[in-house]
Design a protein that fits this description.
- There is one protein chain.
- This protein starts with 9 loop residues before the first strand and ends in an 8-residue tail after the last strand.
- It is globular and about 45 Å long.
- It has 63 residues and is mainly β.
- It has no helices and 5 strands.
- Strands 4-3-2-1-5 form a 5-stranded antiparallel beta sheet, with no helix packed on it.
- It has strands spanning 10-13, 20-25, 32-39, 42-49, 53-55.
- The chain has one domain (10-55).
């Protein structure tokens, strides 16, 4: 199975939440990704199924 995300990609949960950075593909399951984000000054981390994530798209500027 082809890797959907790579380390350094910025992703969001499809259900919402903070922007997260993919730190790596999970070594025990290639369909899961280890992600990190900050909640205030606190660093958070968790692993998510690829089906629950989408690439972050920066908001479009209104010219």
């Amino acid at each position: 199975m082809a890797q959907k995300f790579k380390a350094g990609d910025i992703v969001l949960l499809k259900s919402g939440g903070p922007a997260m950075t993919v730190s790596r593909e999970n070594s025990s399951n290639s369909n899961r990704y280890d992600c990190v984000w900050f909640k205030g000054a606190s660093r958070e981390a968790s692993t998510f199924d690829s089906e629950t994530l989408k690439l972050y798209e920066a908001p479009k500027k209104n010219d």
